[in-house]
Amino acid sequence: PFFRKSGAEKNILPCPRHIAIIMDGNGRWANRRGLPRSAGHNAGAEKLRQVTEWCGDLGVKYLTVYAFSTENWSRPPEEVSSLMSLLVKFLKKYDPEMERQGVRLRVLGDMVSLPDDIRATLEEAVENSKNRKKMQLVIAFNYGGKRELVYATRKIVESALKGKIKPEDINEEL
Ligand code: FPP
């Protein structure tokens, strides 16, 4: 392992506070084994369970995973719907384990345009886990950097139109 809790040992880095992972390569993983892409996604979800546990044990406070991008809607409809069901299955199957491990769940991304049942499951899982303290698993779902910039710009313009901010107030921090 690269990281140890203390960071005191030679050539071993201190444990990071936040690790972010782009969940990629599921399809290639499955192809190489002559399996359908869905098998790669299942294996990816199972690996996420394991990585979450490793992060908790090491003392990582935040694990962010990029699971579904706003561009992923252009995948075949069967793949999109199997990814949605896999997320729901993951949340239901592993919630007791995440509870034991003190894992609080957060989501980031455009919840509004998700199917109602998926959004409801996500919101419920987030709400149920809100008192867990050891670490946070942040799932970026229906997330996109471009969409985030659009939303941020809209909010800034709304504030400007209400006269709350002036153009010169706009900086990187805002
Ligand atoms: C990228 O691999 C992976 C995805 C687009 C989906 C990842 C999402 C899940 C496993 C769904 C469940 C989510 C959670 C948080 C449990 P790819 O298909 O782009 O692989 P490739 O680049 O090899 O084709």
Descriptors for this entry?
48% helix, alpha/beta, globular, 174 residues, single chain, binds farnesyl diphosphate
Ligand identities: farnesyl diphosphate
Secondary structure class reads alpha/beta
| Arithmetic mean of pLDDT | 92
Biggest sheet record: 4 strands, parallel
Number of helices: 5
Using the alpha-carbon principal axes, give the shape: globular
N-end to C-end Cα span: 38 Å
Radius of gyration: 19 Å
Sequence of secondary-structure elements: EEEHHEHEHEH
Strand content: 15-25%
Low-confidence stretches: none
How much helix, percentage-wise, in residues?
40-55%
Q: Can you give a write-up of this model?
A:
With 174 residues, the protein is α/β, with parallel strands linked by helices. It is built from five helices and six strands. The strands form two sheets. A four-stranded parallel β-sheet has the order 3-4-6-5, sandwiched between helices. Strands 1-2 form a two-stranded parallel sheet. The chain is globular. 16% of the residues are buried. The mean pLDDT is 92. Farnesyl diphosphate binds at residues 23-28, 41, 44-45, 48, 65, 67-68, 72, 83, 86-87, 90, 139. Farnesyl diphosphate is lined by residues 23-28, 41, 44-45, 48, 65, 67-68, 72, 83, 86-87, 90, 139.
